[in-house]
Every structure is written in C-alpha cells, then in structure tokens.
Amino acid sequence: MTPNTMKAVGLYRYLPIGHAESLMDVEIEKPVPAGRDVLVRVKAISVNPVDVKVRSPKDREERTPRVLGWDVAGVVEQIGPECVLFQPGDDVYYAGSIDRPGGNSEFHLVDERIVGRKPASLDFAQAAALPLTSITAWEGLFDRLGVSSDPAENAGKSILIIGAAGGVGSVATQLARYAGLTVVGTASRPESVEWVKSLGADYTINHYEEFVPQLQAIGLQQVDYIFCLNSMEKHWSRMAEAIAPQGKICAIAETGGPLDLLPLKNKSVTFVWELMFTRPMFRTEDMIEQHNLLNAVADLVDRNIVRTTVTEKLEPIDAANLRKAHAMVETGRMMGKVVLERFR
C-alpha cells in the first residue's frame, strides 16, 4: 500500500457468489475530491439487492476492478472546492449513485447533495443499514405516492406494504406508521411477522394468499395505497383488486415482462415507479432533496421514532465477508439488513 492507494473489494468478472473470484480483495487508487464531491473514510457498509443484481453472472469482463456498494457510513476526510454542506471530520451516511464507483473501499467519493449527517444516536454499523432503504422508502411514500407527512391528513387511510420485512419494507413500515396510516405489511413466516409488527405494522397478511379476503378479515375492504417491494408480476392482479378507487400503487422491483395496466382503469388508479438513484443519476435540479431527507430520517432516529434495521453484522470488510453478505441477500429471505464494518 502507498499513500495514493487504498483497499477495496471489487470484481473483474460477473460470477456466481460461490466463486472465489466473484468478489476479490484489490488495491486501487485513492480518489481526490473535486467540485461538490466529498471524500469519505468508510467505516461501515451494507449490502442491498442492487449489489446482487449488478454482480450477478453476465458475459462481460472489466479491465479494472469494479467496486460495488451503495450504503456507507463514515467520516468526511476531504471536501471539494465547491462544497458548502460538510467539513472534514463530519460523520455522514449515504447511498451514493449507481453510475459511479460504489463504497466498498477504504475511501469513497460522493456528491455532498446526496449525503446526510449520520444519526448521532447510532454507531457507524447501525447507520450504514439505513441510507438506500430510507431514501427508497421516503421517496416512495412521500414523493411518488404523495402521502402527507401530517398524521391528521392520513386519518382513516391505509397502506399495504408488500415485502414489509425486507430492507426497504422495514423502513417504510416505520415511516408509514409515523405518518399516521393504518399499516398492513405482508409477511409469511412467524419470525418475519413478528419483525414487521415490532416495527409498527397494525396488521400482517400473507403475500402467498389472496389479499382481499385477508384484508376483509381485519376490517378493510380495500387500501388507499400499495407499496410493492418485490415480485410485482406475482402480485399484480391481487393489487388491482385490493387498491381502492383513485388509490395509488408504487413499485420498486423490475418485472419479467410487460404488465397490463387495464385492470387499474375503472378505478382511476395511479401507478408510479420509485428508483432512488434517479436524482443522482440524472443530476436533477432537486438532487439535494436526498440530503434533506437523510437529515430528516436522522432526526427521526435520534428522536426514537425510526430505528436501525440491522439484523446481521460481519467484520471486517473484505471479499470473504462480502461474499457471505451477498449470499444472504440472494436468498430473498433477509429480514432487515446485513452490515459490514472496519477495514483491516
């Protein structure tokens, strides 16, 4: 190692996670911040389904190591000349952008407009579990579905969160509860039901069974909002039945093919996508809203309204442990988040 290089975990080939070269310990150049970028000393990271998707087997090779990782908590090391939000020494957390190198490295460059202050009440590992899922949940609920943040305006309104025990669902459940909605989360195992209820869900139903009869059994004929976090094509007809007239559906997971929107027509249902990378990827004028919402989530955490969603922790940050974490996420049965901390 030299002063101009750093440790990282990257890939050259896109391989099954059981392969020793699917993720490798590498040494790469340490970046230098310019413009509004901050250079962050990475303390902890988390793994999301997007990491697994990007890394999944495909017929392509990289000439230089590709570094993944879109959940970071750390300390600002240096700032670019145009930075106005942070100073060296600030504790931060963020997800980054899909079109830039990820954070599975000792140091990481990120635009300050998508970085938030780390919740003061959390350590770095606890904070690293939150950025990507918090941004997705917040944007999905408040920007895409248009849910009011005022509980008084949501009295009598309900939301169905499909996949409530996962990373995004774990945060969305807490935010929806905070917003005053009646929260129905889907979960299919006793442990995931318990997890979702512990996060504030009023009710749980099984996503492997028809939705409407289960909703009726808990006193709901239909729901005003649906936030679908997985397998949209499997749930499409059930969502169309369960959504109320003039209701709204938001989804984050890609489909295997086209979906028929016609079942939503008679009810005048709104359907929207949420991708938390949209703002940084397209450098939208409101890109700084991710900075603002991460700070808002940090405030909710420090007020004990939202809690971290760590359920698994690995140490240190290296290729072997990242392969373990990817394998956990690949099962599709993760509750909460898996976090890694500390480079050796």
TrEMBL record:
InterPro entries cross-referenced by the UniProt entry: ADH-like_C, ADH-like_N, ADH_Zn_typ-1, ER, GroES-like_sf, NAD(P)-bd_dom_sf, Quin_OxRdtase/zeta-crystal_CS, Zinc-ADH_QOR/CCCR
Pfam families hit by this protein: ADH_N, ADH_zinc_N
One of the record's GO cellular component terms: cytoplasm
SUPFAM superfamilies: GroES-like, NAD(P)-binding Rossmann-fold domains
Localization in the cell: Cytoplasm
Residue intervals of the Enoyl reductase (ER) domain: 18-340
Top-level taxon in the UniProt lineage: Bacteria
GO MF term (any one): oxidoreductase activity
Cross-referenced NCBIfam families: adh_fam_1
Similarity field: Belongs to the zinc-containing alcohol dehydrogenase family. Quinone oxidoreductase subfamily.
PANTHER family: QUINONE OXIDOREDUCTASE
Subunit text: Homotetramer.
Full protein name: Zinc-type alcohol dehydrogenase-like protein
